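Hey L., structure's done. Input below.
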Amino acid sequence: MAVSQDLADRVRAVLAPRAPFEERTMFGGLAFLVDGRMAVAISGDALMVRVGTGGRTAALERGARPMTMGTRTMAGWVVVDGPRLADTRELDAWVETGLQSARTARPRPPR
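Output:
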């Protein structure tokens, strides 16, 4: 599935004044990393948002859906579908959620 370039541009605009970030192609989408940790990613016109282990319930109540890969539900991640992101304030809030979750995530052990 192609990445929505419009959504990618909007995410860049939200992240740019807040934190240095890196973009990587991952999982057939475009991931945005802060401090080496993925904060949000785009797949098609949907935004995958890191919410951490304690943020999933609140995110689902805000209108996100669980993130799944195959048959596995990904803990600490949700998906926000494109129509919910039309409002800039809504996109801003979701990107901020991902950014804060990435900043507070435990570092991965070295490989």
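The radius of gyration is 13 Å. The longest strand covers residues 72-80.

-- N.
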